[in-house]
Amino acid sequence: MKEAECRRLKISGRVQGVCYRASAIEEARRIGVDGWVRNCRDGSVEALVAGASEKVEAFIEWCRVGPPAAQVARVEIFAADFPEAPGFSMQADA
After folding, report:
1. Are strands 34-39 and 88-90 parallel, antiparallel or unpaired?
2. Catalytic annotation, residues
3. Which residues pair with 78 in a beta bridge?
4. What domains can you pick out in the chain, each with its CATH number?
5. How do beta strands 4-14 and 71-79 pair?
6. Model-level pTM?
7. Among 33, 31, 30, 62, CA closest to 45
8. Which residues make Cβ contacts (< 8 Å) with residue 50, sequence separation at least 6?
9. pLDDT, tens digit, 9 for 90 and up, residues 42-90
10. Cβ atoms of residues 49 and 59 within 8 Å
């Protein structure tokens, strides 16, 4: 079995109002990772991603680009606790 990991991401740039969250959910489900995504008051997007290491890395790489209308300036990566439930969803804004 591949080693699992969990990361919290803070994605900055033009990432709100460009379908970033909906696209992230679609990409996470395509890759097969668990977690969530939400908008933050400071204009960034926060995500929690968990799964096999290579799948988490694939999702992080997607986050560095995002959907076509996004302009990602930075992705900060932090260690995090695994989500309580499986699947990938949108959470209430933080």
Report:
1. parallel
2. 21, 39
3. 8
4. 20-82 (3.30.70.100)
5. antiparallel
6. 0.95
7. 62
8. 4, 5, 6, 7, 33, 34, 35, 56, 80, 82, 83
9. 999 999 999 999 999 999 999 999 999 999 999 999 999 999 889 999 9
10. yes
